[in-house]
Write a structure and sequence with these properties.
- The complex is a heterodimer.
- Chain A is of the alpha+beta class.
- Helices cover 37% and strands 24% of the residues of chain A.
- Chain A is built from 32 helices and 37 strands.
- The radius of gyration of chain A is 43 Å and the shape is elongated.
- Chain B is mainly beta.
- Chain B has a single domain, classed as CheA-289, Domain 4 (OB fold (Dihydrolipoamide Acetyltransferase, E2P), Beta Barrel).
- Chain B contains two helices and eleven strands, in the order βββββαββββββα.
- In chain B, the strands form two sheets. In chain B, strands 8-1-2-11-10-9 form a six-stranded mixed beta sheet. A five-stranded mixed beta sheet of chain B has the order 3-6-7-5-4.
- In chain B, a hairpin with a 2-residue loop joins β4 and β5.
- Classes of the chains: A alpha+beta, B mainly beta.
- Chains A and B meet through β25 and β26 of A and β4 and β5 of B.
């Protein structure tokens, strides 16, 4: 620390980083101490003590008065805990924790640390220090004012070390004013006693005693010595000096060019009247080699006493303002082995580059394609390794975020009079630094929610037969290339009825909507903005701006949030997070001549609609176009519309881009219906006219994004968005493609906003359709025979005369065969067909029903062999139209032939449903027992009342 | 006598200048990626050695209509605060019709721009320099960079 000049702001920066680390370590330790009380783990106390001590020392060194004073009193309290004069009960740990918070505030904004108010805390802590006979003393100022001369005696305790072996003390052979000591002590200085040999340490190094004193003064305050004025030129063999300084023994030893064992730490506990000083002797940390005297003499010079005693000198003040600009620079700690690996990879990369240069410069590069491939391969490997490992440097254990939660839970529990136990699992799971940082707030919010809403008071819990202490489990784990984070509590769970009531009363949803919701949907209501279920507002939560923010934060990170809850048993919130944001897999899509990247995490599937099917598959719902994807309505939006690009389409016949005049997706490009007929058929079937739909996920909603082209998936490097285009909500970043051009990364959520997609509208339409469907089914089932409860049936549609349609249930068919007309043999009025070596009677519908005859010019036809009759007869059909699945409600009024069960409108045409049984009977085909054997073959629904 | 150097360039028939200390480099990177929905004055984004720069259409900012790409079109990439910090999102440059000479001018020769700047939006001018044949208007880089503060007209 002393290697650079004193007012070097990089030192201050380092101090801040170190102090922050210390502080974050202290907190859990204090909580641990509190939990252990009244027994005290010396190890932990010492750890905390050392941490606070080093903050104090450095703060004093840099002249941050408040910081130093506060840490000083905290240190004193800790010292009393260490000496077992205090037990770390809650009432003592509490102010210490507050102190840690204050210290953190000061450290974070070090330039304004003097403004932080610790007026209330210091006296409170001081109270615990004074509250003992041994440490009784008057206010420091009074003592200083009196400036009494007092003789000083010395006792000894080991300081700052695990070993508590006492070393015998001895009285100081000279007098020091207790007031002076107190004054320095208040400045946070420690006192050291130097016992040196005049021969060995002064004259051998060619320095006189006054010179040595000057040296001492340069590192702190020289307080006294056994050498009198007269003896200065010829000091006694054993020279004893007392100095006050904020530096450590190691540094002092180096600075003074004396062995560390010559320097001992004094802890002076000044008692105003008896005026004794208690000496604490340490054996000294033997860390530093004593012999490195040649390097250390020069080192101490910047630490001039003036600067320390009058901290905000212009010099330091200037340094402070300068360093505030640099405060934004963050540092990260990287494991050395990782760094070495990176270095290795870098070396390999250089080698590969050299090979590459050689390979390309060689004239026979053409022939040496083999070697070239090898180089490319090695570059490929090294690059992926590098990427992977550099990513690791950004990875930090999630513990960094978890660490603060014990404190949060503890504070909240005591504030809310609850007993809450926090368990944390998987602290070592690593996450990208940026994600980690933005995870802190949402997690804190959710933990708070658990404490406030989730866990009940001990009384309620006991009344419900639970243990009085609630438990929150925070669990982080890897799963499928993502990080999962679950927050589980065994509290009350979410009362969906209450959430619903609140949501209805605040107009978020209607009662009807609520009734139609699934349990999951009701739970998800808590993510709605402006919804709070807390009966009362509290400090902790209940303002209704919470979970929606949490959700949007998580989603901005590319994560998902999932909530499960059972009333009375607790809730689990699961977060799924990507490992990193810097390099993400994404799908590159093309739109006209633009390229865009869509993060793969948002992509569910790709759907292509053939150009000739667009009109059948895409429907309208309000203002939105929708596509029915496996029974769900998927709202569609064209990326070109959202981005307000001129609509272009590729004319398949010419290959040129033309302006698209269509208003909405399902419209045709031609306004004049006559013109449609004139479009060459190619337009409707050409692949370029197909629709590529990306099914994207935004939270719980899905939508389809129509793009022109779909390229490949690529790992893209995310670059931040220029501030000039931050306003475009559709983009989340930029990236550089393989060809060096820039491409925008689409923000899937932003497109929803920009495209004004209204999921509610689509959902409403969907539920309306569901209702209609349900009603239809209901009606169908009412009018269905007992063997058929209105299930959907597959039917085959066929025709003889082109304008007449017939139907049979598929399940009543045995076979469907294509036949050649010339194979039909006629015997009298009856026709037979040679089929598999048998003669099968062929039934023409027109012979038995009052329908028009089939055209006679056909060469081939179809034969439908029904199950009835055991496949001993076929029904003649000119054309098979379709097989569809539908619910049929038959009307038996229209056609009175008994061979027809009834009629229905199928695909906008009147369709006759045949009764094969009667048909075969009337055709003289003997049915035998099959009728009874296949009762389910009476498939069609029909009205009994007229049959 | 204090002197300053300016990189001059042409937009339309006008000569402009920008303090050389504000210029990071000049290049002719023509295929900027346009940004849909962005403001009209934003020409697009370019990749310059792995860094992404926003290109502004200075001609449009000055009220002289949209720039048309010609073989002479050049980009002046500016030095901004972004280069100091890691705030990489503010890297910016602008497109000009043609690059002129670098001129060295004494401080006294810099004059305040006239009140009537004609077709040109005076907001973006800070000074003018009288040259033998013409007048070079010095671009106020801060004002050009500030344009981002204005709301997007959608």
């Amino acid at each position: 620390m002393m290697n650079a000049s004193f007012d070097d702001e990089s030192l201050i920066q380092e101090f801040i980083t170190e102090s922050q680390e210390h502080l974050s370590d202290i907190e859990p330790d204090l909580l641990e101490l509190e939990a252990q009380a009244p027994s005290v783990d010396q190890e932990i106390v010492n750890k905390v003590f050392r941490a606070i001590h080093s903050i104090k020392g450095a703060a004093g060194f840099f002249g941050f008065e408040r910081l130093k004073n506060l840490s000083h009193v905290m240190e004193s309290v800790l010292m009393r805990i260490r000496d077992k004069q205090l037990t770390p009960e809650s009432y003592i740990v509490e102010p210490l924790l507050v102190g840690v918070d204050l210290l953190r505030d000061m450290v974070e904004d070090i330039q304004n640390s003097e403004q932080v108010d610790c007026e209330a805390l210091v006296p409170e802590l001081n109270h615990y220090i004074k509250d003992s006979t041994r440490y009784q003393k008057d206010g420091a100022k009074a003592t200083t004012a009196k400036a009494e001369k007092a003789s000083v005696t010395v006792a000894s305790i080991a300081a700052d070390a695990e070993t508590t072996t006492a070393v015998t003390g001895s009285a100081l052979p000279f007098e020091v004013a207790a007031g002076v000591l107190q004054q320095y002590k208040n400045q946070g200085q420690s006192f050291f006693l130097l016992k040196i040999s005049a021969e060995k340490h002064l004259f051998a190094s060619h320095r006189t005693f006054p010179q040595f004193v000057d040296l001492l003064k340069s590192c702190g305050s020289f307080l006294g010595s056994n050498v009198t004025k007269e003896e200065e030129e010829a000091p006694p063999e054993e020279v004893i000096c007392l100095i006050g300084t904020v530096l450590e023994i190691d540094l002092l030893a180096g600075a003074f060019d004396v062995p560390t064992d010559c320097i001992t730490l004094y802890d002076c506990n000044i008692q105003a009247n008896s005026a004794t000083v208690v000496e604490k002797v340490t054996t000294g940390k033997a860390k530093l080699e004593v012999g490195n005297s040649n390097t250390t003499t020069a080192v101490s010079k910047p630490a001039t006493p003036e600067k320390k005693e009058a901290p905000p000198t212009p010099a330091t003040a200037g340094a402070k303002t300068a360093s505030s600009a640099e405060a934004a620079v963050e540092t990260i700690r990287v494991r050395v082995d990782l760094l070495n690996k990176l270095m290795d990879f870098a070396g390999e990369l250089v080698l590969s580059r050299n090979q590459l240069i050689r390979a390309t410069s060689q004239e026979n590069a053409e022939q040496d394609k083999e070697g070239f491939n090898r180089i490319v391969q090695s570059i490929d490997t090294v690059t992926s390794y590098l990427q992977e490992h550099i990513m690791q440097t950004r990875m930090q254990p999630i513990e960094a975020v978890f660490r603060k939660f014990p404190r949060v839970v503890r504070d909240l529990a005591s504030q809310l009079n609850k007993k809450i136990n926090l368990e944390m699992v998987g602290q070592d799971v690593e996450l990208d630094k940026t994600i980690l940082e933005s995870l802190s707030d949402p997690l804190t919010h959710m933990i708070r929610n658990c404490c406030d809403h989730g866990i009940e008071t001990p009384e309620v819990r006991q009344a419900n037969g639970k243990a009085p202490q609630g438990t929150i489990v925070l669990h982080a784990y890897h799963e499928g290339g993502q990080i999962n984070l679950s927050i589980k509590d065994n509290g009350n769970g979410i009362d969906t009825a209450r959430v619903g009531k609140k949501a209805i009363s605040s107009g978020v949803i209607t009662q009807a909507e609520f009734d139609a919701m699934t349990h999951q949907e009701r739970l998800n209501l808590i993510f709605h903005a402006g919804l709070s279920t807390a009966e009362k507002l509290s400090d902790v939560s209940g303002r209704g701006v919470g979970m929606d923010v949490v959700r949007s934060n998580i989603e901005r990170l590319g994560g998902h949030i999932h909530l499960e809850s059972t009333l009375g048993q607790g809730s689990t919130i699961t977060l799924q997070l990507p490992l990193t944001l810097a390099i993400i897999p994404s799908l590159v899509v093309g739109l006209q001549h633009h390229r865009f990247a869509i993060p793969q995490v948002n992509l569910l599937e790709l759907v292509r609609i053939k150009a000739n099917e667009i009109h059948q598959k895409i429907e309208r719902c309000g203002r939105a176009s929708v596509f029915r994807l496996r029974g769900k309505l998927l709202p569609l939006v064209k990326l070109a519309d959202v981005l307000q690009l001129d609509k272009l389409y590729i004319d398949p016949s010419s290959g040129n881009a033309k302006t698209d005049r269509r208003q909405s997706i399902e419209d045709t490009r031609f306004e004049d219906p006559v013109a449609i007929e004139q479009i060459p058929a190619i337009n409707r079937t050409a692949p370029v006219s197909d629709y590529n739909i990306l099914v994207l996920r935004v939270g719980a909603n899905q939508y389809g994004l129509i793009v022109d082209e779909v390229f490949d998936t690529e790992e893209i490097v995310v670059k931040p968005l220029s501030s000039y285009i931050k306003n475009c909500k559709c983009f989340s970043g930029t990236t550089i493609m393989g060809d060096g051009k820039v491409a925008m990364i689409c923000d899937v959520g932003g497109i929803v906003t920009q495209g004004k997609l209204n999921f509610g509208e689509v959902e409403a339409e969907e539920s309306r359709r569901k209702d209609v469907e349900a009603k239809r089914q209901e009606m169908a089932s009412l009018s269905t025979s007992k063997t058929n409860h209105g299930e959907r049936q597959a039917i085959i549609l066929f025709s003889n005369h082109p304008e007449e349609r017939f139907a049979l249930p598929l399940s009543s068919l045995l076979r469907l065969e294509k036949i050649k007309i010339k194979n039909i043999e006629v015997v009298g009025s009856r026709e037979f067909i040679n089929y598999r070596g048998e003669s099968l009677p062929l039934i023409r519908l027109e012979d038995h029903l009052s329908v028009r005859p089939s055209p006679s010019d056909a060469e081939t036809a179809y034969m439908i062999v029904p199950k009835h009759g055991g496949g001993r007869a076929g029904i003649y059909a000119t054309k098979i139209l379709d097989t569809i699945e539908t619910n049929v409600v038959l009307d038996s009024h229209i056609v009175s032939d008994s061979q027809v069960k009834g009629s229905a409108i199928i695909q906008d045409h009147l369709t006759l449903f045949l009764n094969t049984e009667v048909l075969l009977e009337s055709a003289g085909i003997w049915l035998e027992e099959e009728v009874e054997a296949n009762p389910e073959s009476y498939i069609l629904t029909h009205n009994h009342h007229s049959a | 006598m204090a002197q300053q150097q300016f990189v001059t360039f042409w937009i339309d028939q006008y000569l402009f200048g920008v303090n050389i200390l504000n210029v990071r480099e000049i290049n002719s990177h023509a295929d900027a990626t346009p940004v849909p929905l962005a403001r009209e004055a934003i020409r697009g984004l370019i990749n310059l050695r792995g860094q992404i720069f926003t290109l502004l259409d200075l001609r449009f900012l000055l009220g002289l209509g949209h720039l048309r790409l010609t073989p002479d079109t050049q980009n002046i990439i500016l030095k901004t605060n972004a280069d100091a910090g890691d705030n990489a999102s503010d890297r910016v440059g602008f497109m000009v019709d043609k690059i002129g000479d670098i001129i060295t001018v004494d401080d006294e020769e810099l004059e305040a721009p006239p009140a009537n700047t004609g077709d040109i939006d005076g907001y973006y001018l800070s000074r003018v320099i009288k040259l033998p044949k013409t007048v070079a208007s010095i671009i106020d880089i801060d004002h050009v960079l500030m344009m981002k503060e204005e709301p997007v007209a959608v």
